[in-house]
Amino acid sequence: MKEKRHLRIKELVSQYEIETQEELLRRLEAEGFTVTQATISRDIKELQLIKVVGSQGRYRYAIPVTAAPVSLDVFRRKLSDVFVSLARANNLLVMKVLPGNAHSVAAMIDSMHIDGLLGTIAGDDTMLLICRDEESALRTEALITTS
User: Fold this and answer.
1) Measured between alpha carbons, how far is 24 from 19 in angstroms, rounded to an integer?
2) Residue in 30, 34, 37, 4 with CA at minimum distance from that of residue 16
3) Which of 8, 13, 97, 114 is placed for a possible disulfide with 61 were both Cys, Cβ 3.0 to 4.6 Å?
4) What angle do CA 26, 29, 30 make, to 5 degrees?
5) Whether the Cβ atoms of residue 115 and residue 139 lie closer than 8 Å to each other
6) How far is CA 147 from CA 4, 69, 88, 101, 106, in A?
7) What would the pLDDT profile of 32-65 be if each residue is shown by its tens digit?
8) What is the spatial distance between Cα 79 and Cα 129, in angstroms, rounded to a whole number?
9) Local confidence band at 86 (pLDDT 50, 70, 90 cut-offs)
10) Is the pLDDT of residue 68 over 80?
């Protein structure tokens, strides 16, 4: 029953702009599912549903999109088109790219799961790559700049 309910919840949030747990509860009940608000709350957590801005400007539930890992070759081809500079300060790397490209490059870097890279923060044309330590920053810098 739980698997069927989870499948139907995914279908509902994909088809409709469901804004609240109550609305999701009503839709499931209308389709014959017997659920409580607590069950809906647990389902939302288990399915890792997120809130995004809907077409009316109000928040609605959505299924998170997971990015597929990017190969080093694909990353380097993208980077060769937009790269401006890379600087290191201890465990931090600051990368400059052409305007409008920082988010996509940072997402590619994040999907590569580079050992020692804790995360990225991206603006419009600048990214901050935060490494565990200086050694990790040196390895990440070499990985990014090696052609």
Assistant:
1) 8
2) 30
3) 13
4) 85
5) yes
6) 48, 19, 18, 19, 18
7) 999 999 999 999 998 889 888 888 888 999 988 7
8) 15
9) very high
10) no
Are 83 and 66 a contacting pair, CB within 8 Å? no
- Structural contact between residues 75 and 108, judged by C-beta atoms closer than 8 angstroms: yes
Q: Is residue 101 over pLDDT 70?
A: yes
Locate tokens 């014959």: which residue?
32
> Which residues sit opposite 119 in a β-bridge?
130
Q: What is the pLDDT of residue 103?
A: 86
The span from the CA of 38 to the CA of 145, in Å, is 50
CA-CA distance, 95 to 82, in Å (whole number)? 11
